[in-house]
Amino acid sequence: MKYKIEKNTVQETLVLPLYSRKLCSELYPNLYRDETAVRLIENIDYDFSEAEKNSRSLMQRFGALEVAMRQCDLAWEVREYLKAHPNAAVVNLGCGLDNTGRACDNGRCKIYNLDFPDVITVRNELLPAGEREQNIPCNLNDTAWFSEIDASDGAVFFASGVFYYFLTEQVKALVQAMASAFPGSILVFDAANKTAVKMIAKTWLKSAKIQDVGAYFAVSDAKSELSPWDSRLQVSGRGYMLGYNDLKDPSVSGFFRFLAKVGDNGMKMQIVKIEFGDRQ
């Protein structure tokens, strides 16, 4: 029995990124493979005809490459942290139907998937929590969820495509609170400059009737802009299209490599890593 998803619902906002990750897996199999997305799409009753039609366009295919690289980069950072802290908490902030935590599972870590209650309801149906795993319904800006995370052996927090929707002050307050609650842990997430955020925001800002794009979270130089937030932060950034992978793969055209350079250098598309220093 397939899980039915209606148009214009919260569930639909979960299905389209999932479709994007399935598309990445088909277009760039050497770079990225999301078995969960492929499997879930087959188990969902939803009209994908429009998504399939759009998937033929050049920019949609480049968008799929962006998604693939972002997920690969975040997973790389999670695995890197787990090498030094094998029993750490792996915390997916704004998880949707993303399964990166389980994809990085070393058999010892603890996995937490956090999102709004109505999202977690869908996740519990389609991706019920496995061993050493919890799906936690919450609002990320309400730090009550901190108490659910066992970070006694360290924690790596990651957010994919999430902080663009936060006000800068909200991200700052969350990061400062995390620095106090989780010393020795790290947070990794994707970010971009104002120009890119305006492009990302075109559709959702219009629907929310918000005028001031400047209020939303955008970053050009992560180290110089975010370090002053708190003396306990060690901030670094890497381009997310080419910072972790040179994209010299037969599935990626020269034109797409050129666009990737523009993304990293012109739009400042980056993976930001914030290390929370120990308590002072």
Features:
single chain, 280 residues, alpha/beta, two-stranded parallel sheet, 10 helices, 16% strand
Head-to-tail CA distance between termini: 55 Å
**DSSP, total strands:** 9
Question: Radius of gyration, Cα only, in angstroms?
Answer: 18 Å
Biggest sheet features: 7 strands, mixed
Shape: globular
Oligomer description? single chain
Mean pLDDT: 92
Q: Catalogue the unreliable spans.
A: none
Class derived from helix and strand content = alpha/beta
Succession of helices and strands: EHHEHHEHEHEEHEHHEHE
Strand order of the largest sheet: 5-4-3-6-7-9-8
Helix coverage percent: 40-55%
Per DSSP, the total helix count is 10
**Percent of residues in β-strands:** 15-25%
Short description:
The chain is of the alpha/beta class and 280 residues long.
What would you note in describing this structure?
There is one protein chain. By secondary structure, this protein is α/β, with parallel strands linked by helices. Helices cover 43% and strands 16% of the residues. The protein contains ten helices and nine strands. The protein has helices spanning 10-27, 35-42, 49-54, 58-84, 100-103, 117-126, 168-181, 194-208, 222-226, 254-266; strands spanning 3-4, 44-45, 89-93, 110-115, 133-137, 155-159, 186-191, 233-239, 270-276. Helix 1 packs across helix 2. It is globular and about 50 Å long. It starts with a strand and ends with a strand.
